[in-house]
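Complex record, two chains
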Amino acid sequence: MDRPNPLFRNLNSKLASLPMMLIVLGVFVGGTLWTVLFSFTNIKILPLFTPKQWIDGFVGFANYKRLFNSDRWMSCPAITKIGQEGWQLKCTGAMPNMITYAILAIIISISLGFLLAVMMDQKIRLEGMFRTIYLYPFALSFIVTGHVWAWIMSPEYGLQHAIRELGWTSFSFGWIADRQMVMYAIVIAGIWQGTGFVMALMLAGLRGIDEDIWKAARVDGIPAWRTYIQIVLPMMKPVMVTTFVLVASGAVRIYDLVVALTDGGPGISSDVPSRYIYQNFSANLGQSLSASTVMLVSMALVLIPWMRMEFGKKSQA
Amino acid sequence: MKAFTMAAVLAATVALPSVGMATDLEVTHWWTSGGEAAAVAEFAKAFDATGNHWVDGAIAGSGDVARPIIISRIMGGNPMGATQLNPGKDADDLIAAGLMQDITDLATAEDWAHILRPASQLESCTKDGKVYCVPVNLHSAQWMWTNRKVFTDLGMEPPKDINELIADAPALEKAGIQPLSLAQGWPVGLMVNDILVAQAGVDNFVKVYKDRDLTIAGGPEFAKIFETLASIRQYTPADKMVPQWNEAVGLVIQGKAAANIMGDWAGGEFQVAKMVAGTDYDCLPGLGVTPVLNTGGDVFYFPKSADPAITKAQLELAHTLVTKEVQVAFNLKKGSLPMRADVDLSAANDCMKKGLEILDHSSAVFPNDIQMIDRDSLNQINDLFTEFMANPDMAAADAQAKFVAIIEAAPK
C-alpha cells in the first residue's frame, strides 16, 4: 500500500491557509497566553514582554486577590437570613451583574424570539413588514439603543414624567436611577435590540423544516402547538445552539449598552466586567489582565463541556 | 502602479520635513467644546505665525477618553508632534521609557523657573532635574456657585460657605428648590474632592494623599467629611442627578437649584447667561471654607522624534505657548488663569480676579491629587466615592475604612 503522505494532501489549500493559521496562533493564542502570563506581574501602564520582565515583576496572585476584594468586581456580603423560609445570597458588582444580564437576556430573548418566529410562520399577511419592524432595532448600534432607553427611563424627562403629567402621579419607571432595578433596565434595552435578530434566525430554522413533516403531523391529528414543541423544536437544535452561542457571547461582552444607558450608575451598581477591564486599562494593566483571565476561565468552564458534547460525539460517529 | 504611488507617498512624507521650510506638527488635545476650541485656535494661530503649521488632532470626549489613545500612540511608536496631557504620574512612565523630548535647555534659556507660577506646576513637569513639558494654564476646581436670587426671594441671606448651605438645605427643599445640583460621573468625584479639601484643610489633605498619613485618614477630621458627604447625598439622589455638568450649572442659573460645586470653567456658563458675579451669582473659592485653589492645569508634552525638523518645531511651539500675548489670548477664551504673573488681565471678571488673588499668595495653592498619588489608586478612590454618594445604605464609617485601605495600599 503506497498511500500519499496525508500532510501533503491538498497542499495548495494548506499553503493558502497557512498565513491565517499563523495569525490565529500569533494573535489569538499568543495574545491569550500573554494576557494570562502577565496577569501574574505588577504590570502597570507600560506593557512588558520579555521573560526577564516577567520574572522581575512576578507578584503571584496579588492582582487576583485585589480583584476579588474589590467591591466593583464582586461583593457578596454575608449570607442574610430571610424569615423562616431560608437564606438569601445577594451579590453585587460587575461579575454578578453580567451573570444576571446574561441569564435573563438568553432566556427571554430566545423564548420571545421563538414565539415571534412561530407567529411569523403562520403565513400572516404583511409578513415582510413585520419582519422588518422586529429586525429594525438590530440595525441600531448599542450606543443609540442605550441613549434612547436612557431618555425613556429617565425619571426627569422620560415615560415616568410624561405619565405623571397625565395625572397618574404614583407611576414609577425611573429604572436607570434605581439601584435595585437598573440591571433590569439594561436587560429590557438589550432584549428590545436583540430579539428581532433571534426571531430572524429562528424563522430561518422554521422555514428549513420539511413541509412533509407538517403534513404527516396533521394526518396524525397532532395539534399545531404540540408539533412545534415536540417535533419542530428538537429538529431546530442546530439553530438553537447557534442562537445560544451568539446571544450568550453578546451578553458576556456587554459594554457599549451599559456605557450609553447608565455608565455603570447609579454609583457603580450597573458595572459590568468589560467596563471594569477597559477602565483599568490605562491605569493598572494588571487588573485588566487578571479580570480578562477570570472572564476567559469562566467562559471556558461553560464552553468546554458543551464543546466536548458537540464535537466529541462526532468523532465517535 | 499602486506600489509606486505608495512608495512616492512614503518618500514624500519622509523627505518633506527635511526640506525645512514649514514643518507640520500634529498636536493632540481634548479641547472640543465651544470655548475650548476657540482657545486652542489662539495657539494654532500663534504657531502658524512662526512659519510652521499646526495640524489639529482634537480627540472628542474627555481626558478619560483621550488619555489612553495618546499614551498608546506614543508607546506604539506613532508619536504626535506635541500633546496635551495632565501633569503628574501619567507621563512619568513614558519619560522613564525615554519616549519624551527633554526641553530643559529652552526652559533654562527663557528662565521659566522665574516667569511661570506657581512653582509646583513647573516642578511637576520636571523629572530628575529635566523639564519635559510646558504648563499653559491653571484650572481650579474648588468653586461653589450660588444663585443669589434664590436665597433673597426666600428672605434668606445667600450662604458664604458650604456649611451655611447645608444649614439652609431643609428650608430650600421645603420651598421646592434643590439645595445642591449634581451631574453624573466625574462631577461627583470633583465635588467630593472639593469638600475633602475644604473641610480637612490643605495640610491634612496633603498629609493623607502625599505622605499617606493613615491616622489622619482614619481620624476624626476625615470622619466628619464622610458625615458631611452622607448629609449631602440625601439632597442629590440618583433620580435628581443630571447627565452633564453644564446642565447642573444650568439648574442654578435657572434658579431650580440653589448651588453647584464645579470648577472655574462653570463661570463661562454664567457669563453666557449674562449674569454678573457678585450681584446675580456668587463664586466661592474653596467652597467658602478655606480659600484655596489646586494647581491643576493643562500642559503640553513633546514625544521624542528622530527627525531634527520635528524637534526644532517642537521647541518653537514650546516657546510660543508661554509668550505673553499667547497666554492672554488663550486664557481669556479658556476661562483659566494664565501661567505668567506679568500679563495684562484687565478684561478678567470678578471670579477670575478672586482666583488670581489666591494665586498670588502661593501658600493657599496646593498640588493636584494626581501629582501626589497614582492614577490607579485615584480610580479606586473615585469608585468608592461614586458608590458612597449613590448608595444610601453605605455607612460613613465603612466608607472611611475602605478609603484608609486604598491609601495604605497605594504605591509610594
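Note: Residues 113 and 199 of chain A are 4 Å apart (CA to CA).
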